[in-house]
Write a structure and sequence with these properties.
Layout lengths: L10 E12 L2 E13 L5 E2 L2 H16 L4 E5 L3
Protein backbone atom coordinates (compact mmCIF):
# COMPACT_ATOMS: atom_id res chain seq x y z
CA UNK A 1 0.00 0.00 0.00
CA UNK A 2 1.06 3.60 -0.46
CA UNK A 3 2.34 5.25 2.74
CA UNK A 4 -0.18 7.77 4.07
CA UNK A 5 2.55 9.68 5.94
CA UNK A 6 5.19 10.44 3.29
CA UNK A 7 2.97 9.67 0.26
CA UNK A 8 6.04 8.51 -1.69
CA UNK A 9 6.92 5.08 -0.35
CA UNK A 10 5.21 1.73 -0.49
CA UNK A 11 4.86 -0.63 2.44
CA UNK A 12 6.26 -4.12 2.59
CA UNK A 13 6.33 -6.77 5.33
CA UNK A 14 8.95 -6.14 7.98
CA UNK A 15 9.54 -5.74 11.70
CA UNK A 16 9.03 -2.68 13.88
CA UNK A 17 9.81 -1.51 17.39
CA UNK A 18 6.65 -0.21 19.04
CA UNK A 19 6.76 2.06 22.09
CA UNK A 20 3.67 2.60 24.23
CA UNK A 21 3.54 4.98 27.18
CA UNK A 22 0.90 5.52 29.83
CA UNK A 23 1.28 7.47 33.05
CA UNK A 24 4.72 6.46 34.39
CA UNK A 25 4.97 3.21 32.43
CA UNK A 26 6.93 2.74 29.20
CA UNK A 27 6.48 -0.53 27.29
CA UNK A 28 8.72 -1.31 24.32
CA UNK A 29 7.91 -4.16 21.96
CA UNK A 30 10.70 -5.38 19.69
CA UNK A 31 10.41 -7.27 16.41
CA UNK A 32 6.69 -6.71 15.85
CA UNK A 33 5.47 -7.85 12.42
CA UNK A 34 4.24 -4.82 10.48
CA UNK A 35 3.92 -3.26 7.07
CA UNK A 36 6.86 -0.83 6.86
CA UNK A 37 7.27 2.06 4.42
CA UNK A 38 10.37 1.64 2.26
CA UNK A 39 10.81 5.43 2.13
CA UNK A 40 10.17 6.88 5.60
CA UNK A 41 10.04 3.83 7.85
CA UNK A 42 6.50 4.46 9.13
CA UNK A 43 4.91 1.19 10.20
CA UNK A 44 1.35 -0.11 10.12
CA UNK A 45 0.17 -2.86 12.47
CA UNK A 46 -2.57 -5.39 11.86
CA UNK A 47 -5.65 -5.30 14.06
CA UNK A 48 -4.58 -8.58 15.69
CA UNK A 49 -1.07 -7.34 16.49
CA UNK A 50 -2.48 -4.09 17.90
CA UNK A 51 -4.89 -5.97 20.15
CA UNK A 52 -2.11 -8.24 21.44
CA UNK A 53 0.22 -5.31 22.14
CA UNK A 54 -2.45 -3.41 24.03
CA UNK A 55 -3.29 -6.46 26.16
CA UNK A 56 0.38 -7.06 27.02
CA UNK A 57 0.90 -3.37 27.78
CA UNK A 58 -2.14 -3.35 30.07
CA UNK A 59 -0.68 -6.30 31.96
CA UNK A 60 2.63 -4.48 32.38
CA UNK A 61 0.86 -1.36 33.70
CA UNK A 62 -1.27 -3.42 36.09
CA UNK A 63 1.87 -5.15 37.39
CA UNK A 64 3.39 -1.76 38.24
CA UNK A 65 6.14 -1.81 35.62
CA UNK A 66 8.00 1.42 34.98
CA UNK A 67 9.88 0.15 31.93
CA UNK A 68 9.16 -3.15 30.23
CA UNK A 69 10.87 -4.46 27.09
CA UNK A 70 9.09 -7.33 25.41
CA UNK A 71 10.14 -9.37 22.40
CA UNK A 72 6.90 -9.78 20.48
CA UNK A 73 5.60 -13.31 20.07
CA UNK A 74 2.40 -13.89 18.15
Amino acid sequence: MKCVICKHGNTKPGLATVTLERDNCLVIFKKVPAEVCDNCGEYYLSDIATEQLLQQAETAVNNGAEVEIIRYAA
